[in-house]
Design a protein that fits this description.
This protein is α+β, with helices and mostly antiparallel strands. Helix content is 11%, strand content 15%. The chain has helices at 7-12, 83-88, and strands at residues 23-27, 34-38, 43-45, 54-56. A hairpin with a 4-residue loop joins strand 2 (34-38) and strand 3. It binds zinc ion.
Length: 105
Amino acid sequence: MNVAFDEYLIAEQGGNCCGQDRFTVISCASCQGHYLFNEELNDLYYDPRDLRRRFFKIPGMNPPPCTYCGDIDWQFSDQQLNIVAIKTGPWGWLLDDSEIDFTRD
Ligand SMILES: [Zn+2]
């Protein structure tokens, strides 16, 4: 799903923005732990408190083990997160609240 993130805040925290960013939150298929992912740049963010900790997620190149469950070959879950799950999760503070419409889901 499309959720609006505060790209100014992300950049300020050390994130990598290109202006065409498509941020989303994905979860680990093994443990459902949340990760921030920029679909435009294939940047996978590992640490909500340090956005400089990010890795390329492209076919043939595995990111480090899941920080939540330690799975060395973890995959993105097919399950889509809803906005409430994202908002209450570790990356929720990076959402642009002004663009969230809680009446839709
Ligand atoms: Zn995991």
